[in-house]
Amino acid sequence: DAGVTQSPTHLIKTRGQQVTLRCSPKSGHDTVSWYQQALGQGPQFIFQYYEEEERQRGNFPDRFSGHQFPNYSSELNVNALLLGDSALYLCASSLESIGYGYTFGSGTRLTVV
Amino acid sequence: AQTVTQSQPEMSVQEAETVTLSCTYDTSENNYYLFWYKQPPSRQMILVIRQEAYKQQNATENRFSVNFQKAAKSFSLKISDSQLGDTAMYFCAFMRGGGTSYGKLTFGQGTILTVHP
What we know:
heterodimer; A: 113 residues; mainly beta; seven-stranded mixed β-sheet; 0% helix; 50% strand; B: 117 residues; six-stranded mixed β-sheet; 12 strands; 51% strand
């Protein structure tokens, strides 16, 4: 049973560009969350999707947007990239009853130059 | 807003020994969940153990156990019989049990654990 799959694993972009990161949740999971993890820090919550809608959002600017598809997969889009957007982006999936915890992917390492 | 604090940036332990990682949190909620996640160099965050705040019994998963002190808002992780594969960054995380922000994990800063042979 595949876990959470994220693509690409690494990405280098130039300031001002736009990027799309992709996530396929664990089989049977319907809720997807995205986190940003700066080097040596704990992950920070970006937003969560359930039933193709953004259910809640962390303290991130509107440059960060997302989407969830009918098959529960998700995309994270970041516009007008800044150097400070360089980080590991983690996708996590769960069933709607999320008290049991999340299954995380291995992340996408984004470097903005 | 909830906050999670891990006061030990780095810890080390000899193989087969026991180590305890500390975590404190701040919340006004009564219904919540606490988690310990492990992040090895492979980057994947792996759930180690979870605790439901309304359960007084401390959670245990094989060599991993927690000491949950609700009144003190403390949630430490004890790793017994440490193994080389336990070397990783460990994160303590908090999640509300309902209402707004349900589903949002708030992480601590992490503790790097190194197990020496």
